[in-house]
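Same chain as my last thread, 235 residues:
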Amino acid sequence: MKQFVLLLSATLPLVINSAALAQPAGLSYPRQGVVCDSVGRTCYDSYGPSIGITADVYGQGAANNLTANLNQTNSRDFRLSTGQACSVPRRTCWNDGWSATKVAPGLTQQLFGSNSANGQPLQPQKISGTGLCSLSRSGQRIFDGTCRLKQVRKGDQNLYEVQLQNGSNYVFRQNGSQYQIRDGFGGIWPVTFIDHGNTGIFRFGDYKLVATQESSNRNAAVGSAIGNLLNALFQ
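reply #2:
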């Protein structure tokens, strides 16, 4: 598949009034773009419930419970124990739940941020690492071995690149709430993505690509904005 390269930038933490980010009782803000609910033992980011971050904060048991709940519903919208609700497609949180008449500015800012920081251009944020990958077509395995994994992020949009040891390269670009991949002839294919914590599954056409993290490296631009590679990348 022809390599497709796209550089995106990531949202940087904003300097805002501290009162706007006051944390309601039961909620914590481990870093910009993340909210954790101690009552529900679940963490969220701008894509909804996060299995990886939940495992980091509350342990694997909480992550397993979240995985089971996510398997029962595909919704990335969520309601917190405080009664506040957040919509990922609308990138907004409300203090009055799904009545959605009273915006929660601090919670909205914490999760969804902005597309600029103090008027300065956004800097690229990248994460790369190694993993084990398997690729099958029509149910038949055609690759099983090591791979390189990369994420490039701009705000709420992601690009995921998986490079197999045999030289094949697959780039999954987010378009709104969906993912796409472009073939060597310029055709665009829809991608179905499934999150299993430190393992991600991409399905496109008659292909299935499974990638599992082994190690990762964060460059200096990433800082604390994104967690380890697949815990943040596959969610």
